[in-house]
Amino acid sequence: MTDRAGTFDGVHRRNLSKVLGHVHLEGPLSRARLTAMTGLNRSTVASLVAELNAQGLTIEQAPDPTNRVGRPSPVVAPDPRVLAIAVNPEVDAITIAAVGIDGGIRARERIEVDHLPTPAETAELVASAHDRWRTGPLRDARIVGVGLAVPGLVRASDGLVRFAPHLLWSDVPIRAIVETATGLPTAVGNDASLGAVAEHLFGAGRGVDDMVYLNGGASGIGGGLIVHGVPVGGSAGYAGEFGQNRPGIDPAGDRRATGGVLEDEVSRARLLEVVGLDHGDEPALAAALAAADSPAVTDEVERQLRILATALCNAVNVLNPSLVVLGGFLATLAERDLGALERAVAEQAMPAASEGLSIRVAALGENRLLIGAAEIAFADLLADPLGR
What we know:
- By secondary structure, the protein is α/β, with parallel strands linked by helices.
- The chain folds into 3 domains: 8-78, Arc Repressor Mutant, subunit A; 82-194 and 368-383, ATPase, nucleotide binding domain (Nucleotidyltransferase, domain 5); 206-363, Nucleotidyltransferase, domain 5.
- The chain has 14 helices and 16 strands.
- It has a 5-stranded mixed β-sheet, sandwiched between helices. A 5-stranded mixed β-sheet has the order 14-13-12-15-16, with helices on both faces. It has a 3-stranded antiparallel β-sheet with strand order 1-3-2.
């Protein structure tokens, strides 16, 4: 393949990528603002925007009528009809959404299952949703691909699911399986790592360069890392498996699983059981916990929070983040008393490492993993809007 990075065509493509990337991350921007952000001149920006409009990637809107200073500048926005299909397969449900390049959710389904979904079944459900939506809410859409957020070890080089223990998937070429079922290019990543990316770009971690993200889902606890503003995947893509760590548990009476790892002790399943639910999504669990007045519920929540604080302390000592973001049922636990959790972590961590530390809940709520999955589906388009 010819390397065109230094050619006029290569520079042109990079400039298109810059403009599209800015409106994707920031939302609608005036041409004047894009000129300042890219460092390009006004005529170049106008030409790039016209080309992106012609490609169906951006649209121009009337300038803000309240801005009366100087000559009005047209506002450039990502075209909301450009979409990715985002998928999060879990042990109790498969969630599928159509996520716009503007961040909007055009369609969303949570399909509950009473058995562990197989890779083939997952692909069939995605293809079925895609086909139905194409004749309904997405009939005017340009769907660029599929992104999957899988709760397991995903090999970065080719998207192979090496091991998703709770789904019982092992060495599954899920990318190829979904591509065959849908006819769409597909990308695959670890669910929590993608949640970290989503919260870093659009949510609670926006603008934060050093962040630890922990996700609590039906399959346990996963994590993602942002270091110096860059997602950290490790040598093969498996970094961030906080749920498999073995935190010290004190007092000993807090332990429920002999020899267990973090996700055996801090567990969504245990919370569902104590509130009397067989299953439920995140809002259902949060509502049940909020409504419960049983001492058993209070004791279980406090037990899990004590263990979570120790696990977070270990992460703070090792990584020295300025922010910890908690998603899923971990956010539900933390919201009981976020200040108390911060204090419990600070009391156990090295004082210097925890200086200025903040703990927040995920700002993107139930959509965080889907937005992260969409981001990897958009990656090639954002890198080269003209395609290769």
